[in-house]
Specification:
The protein is α/β, with parallel strands linked by helices. Helix content is 31%, strand content 25%. Helix 4 (154-167) packs across helix 7.
Length: 268
Amino acid sequence: MKAAVDRLVERLDGLAPATGLVLGSGLGALVEAVEDAVRVPYGELPGFPGSGVSGHAGEVVAGRLSGTPVIMLSGRAHYYESGDPAAMRPALEVLAGIGVTSLVLTNAAGSLDPAMPPGSVMQITDHINLSGTNPLIGEPSEARFTGMTGAYDAALAAAFRTAARTADVTLHQGVYMWFSGPSFETPAEIRMARTLGADAVGMSTVPEVILARFLGLRVAGFSVITNLAAGMTGAELSHAETKEMAPLGGARLAAVLSAAFAAGLPEA
């Protein structure tokens, strides 16, 4: 981790972002809003994961968003790629190592609510880990017993809701359920998810939330809705649809993030 931290600090050349973002499938265009961007491929940072998923660039992008220093991970490694739920741990440890204190996680997700159609943005208020695994399995320290009652920071959530009103963007609220993937859910699984209280489903984010809380980072999370979930329309789902639809909600999310950073996020 030290080698990656040192390399990143060198490339940042004095920029000291306190907020990091992780960009989900099809949301890489958000980096275009970053001013004076510095780009560092994951391959230049020891220990950083590679991503074998199209729609994930695999680079660190740092600069200013609405005048505020930020650092983005454009692309993530998923549990379904390697069977390792802690695949993003090295990258998140490096963010914490350079001084990041707040983490904004984004993903592309399927909606379980017809009133939240493709192109919508959902602020994650809580999550359900249906995968049966956890990125802290094998962690030897007592810190592995990480509390998750306040996993999504209330002050950050409030600031983003205010920013959404400023940007005139409808910001839905809901619970995200993590399925392991890579296959999409069945209609029966979606009916179960709805019964259990989920509002959106996807294949990422939850292990990163757990790791971020383990590392002491504050967390905010957003799902960009790319489709109605399996069985709701009768149509089959595809990753191509995810990549096609993500930029629609991504533009709305970018407006919310820009407004939030312009106003200033609450300090830890």
